[in-house]
Amino acid sequence: MRALILILPLVVAVLLLALAVGRALDRRSARSARWQVVHYGQDGHTVVAVGLLPRRGGTPLDEHVVDRIPAGDPEWTTRFLHAREVAEERAFHLNSGPTALPG
Predict the structure, then answer these.
(1) DSSP type of residue 103
(2) What H or E segment, with its residue span, contains residue 90?
């Protein structure tokens, strides 16, 4: 019992240190993230968006959807090309200023 009382503060300190290091790494990753054009299929639609992506890859930190184009849309190509154009311009402007993270 006495050993447990002595080890408990050490375990708590290690957990707090691990949490602090994890948050510092998340902040560093977020600061180096860049806005990029992304597109993907979802529920029968093509989603064109601007995603805030970490430089080393991974899950997007934020996303701004430009358009959701139904797969059967007769104007699919025109809408897709226009949405990519808008997304590229938006990414350019978002990357020209400081990155503000959601939340």
Answers:
(1) -
(2) helix 76-95
- C-alpha to C-alpha distance for 46 and 61, rounded to whole angstroms: 20
- Characterize 67-103 residue by residue with b for buried, 16 or more Cβ atoms within 10 angstroms of its Cβ, and e for exposed: bebeeeeeeeeebbeebeeebeebbeebeeeeeeeee
**Sheet order of strands, 34-42 included:** 34-42, 45-53, 62-70
Give the residues across from 67 on adjacent strands: 48
pLDDT tens per residue, range 65-94: 999 999 999 999 999 999 999 999 999 999
The whole-model pTM stands at 0.65
Cβ atoms of residues 49 and 63 within 8 Å = yes
29 vs 11, 15, 26, 56, 91, CA distance in Å? 27, 21, 5, 8, 18
User: What CA–CA distance (Å, rounded) separates 92 from 8?
Assistant: 51
Q: Which two tokens stand for residue 90?
A: 């938006």
Token pair listed for 47: 């989603």
